[in-house]
Write a structure and sequence with these properties.
The chain contains 12 helices and 14 strands. It has helices at residues 13-27, 36-52, 65-68, 97-102, 146-157, 175-184, 195-203, 205-208, 219-232, 245-253, 264-267, 319-325; strands at 57-62, 78-79, 86-95, 108-115, 126-132, 165-169, 187-191, 212-218, 235-241, 262-263, 274-279, 290-292, 295-304, 309-318.
Length: 335
């Protein structure tokens, strides 16, 4: 990771909000239609077009497409209109493509940015994560056993360990961690997708009732989550997760230490971080896109680190304008 350059002297939060709203509105007409590639393509095109109008010299340092062969905002792509500031951009046009295609809860569109050279970059697809909220900040250690961490988190929360709720991505590779959590007696909330949303639920425990996130998930989602967690005041540790020696070789060639525990400042060392997410399908974190007569409704979360502000933004977008912009196909009926 290169040295962080310069400060961002302008609040880009609302500009990012318009970007994720565009991604969500573009993807929403395809929710429940069984075609995640088509939904992803629409979201990527909408986000790329929206980012082109933002006053910034942006470089995509981590994106989604290389992992799942989706259409992508590719690593190293230059985005924005070329004006200052120079920033790193992490983007997931649809976090939860399978959720969108199946019409299931929790799909969101996500973008984060920070000072140039501040974000962790890798082509390794997965990382192991441990995420907690503000009260448990500073008590976790990814090198320690699951039981040790859960007892520490419970102590920080002032709860018996049996009252903790841990969100875990439901994958075969997380089976051992799931068993260890259950051995301790904590509750588990299994999610089929939505890694960033799961991490945010753990950080915003007062809204979600979730106290912790554990297990392996996407590396892209890990960097995006770290940007949000750093603005909110939670804590996170991560380690690259390798399915084979080839992925470990990728990390070594990138200059990463394979077994290094990555803290928040390793994942995003910036001090001026912006994060925006807009719901595509309704979930516990955000409401999804809803069509109401002449408007489409969206709900978004916008964060900025320097102020520590979290905004939940409800917006109503004229249907005619969305059709004119191509964000709502003519053949999609609204009531």
């Amino acid at each position: 990771m290169s040295e962080v350059k310069g400060k961002i002297n302008r609040n880009l939060a609302l500009e990012l909000l318009r970007v994720t709203e565009a991604g969500a509105l573009a993807a929403a007409p395809l929710q429940g239609r069984g075609n995640k590639e088509a939904a992803d393509l629409r979201a990527v095109e909408a986000i790329r077009e929206a980012l082109a109008d933002v006053d910034m010299k942006g470089t995509v340092v981590i994106g989604e497409g290389e992992k799942d062969k989706a259409p992508m905002l590719y690593f190293g792509e230059q985005i924005g209109n070329g004006l200052e500031p120079a920033v790193d951009v992490a983007v997931d046009p649809i976090e939860g493509t399978s959720l969108t295609a199946s019409g299931l809860p929790g799909a969101i569109s996500v973008v984060a940015l920070a000072e140039r050279g501040s974000m962790f970059t890798t082509h390794v697809p997965y990382m192991l994560k441990l995420v907690v909220g503000r009260r448990a900040r500073g008590v976790i250690d990814l090198d320690m056993p699951v039981e040790w961490n859960l007892l520490r988190i419970a102590g920080a929360e002032g709860l018996p360990v049996q009252e903790l709720t841990v969100v875990v991505l439901e994958r075969e590779r997380n089976r051992e961690i799931i068993a260890q959590i259950r051995d301790v007696g904590a509750r588990i909330k299994l999610i089929t997708a939505g890694d960033v949303a799961g991490a945010l639920e753990a950080t915003l425990e007062m809204r979600s009732g979730v106290h912790c996130m554990m297990g392996s998930g996407g590396a892209t989602e890990g960097v995006l989550a770290a940007c949000a967690i750093k603005t909110i005041g939670g804590d996170m540790q991560a380690r690259l997760f390798f399915r084979d020696e080839a992925e470990k070789d990728v990390a070594v060639k990138e200059g990463h230490k394979p077994n290094q525990v990555l803290c928040l400042d390793d994942l995003c060392s910036g001090t001026d971080i912006f994060f925006a997410a807009t719901g595509i399908t309704s979930g516990e974190l955000l409401k999804g896109v809803r069509y109401e007569d002449v408007y489409a409704y969206t709900q978004s979360m916008v964060l900025r680190s320097t102020s520590g502000t979290m905004r939940i933004v409800d917006a109503y977008h004229p249907i005619d304008n969305l059709r004119a912009k191509g964000l709502l196909p003519e053949q999609v009926a609204v009531r």
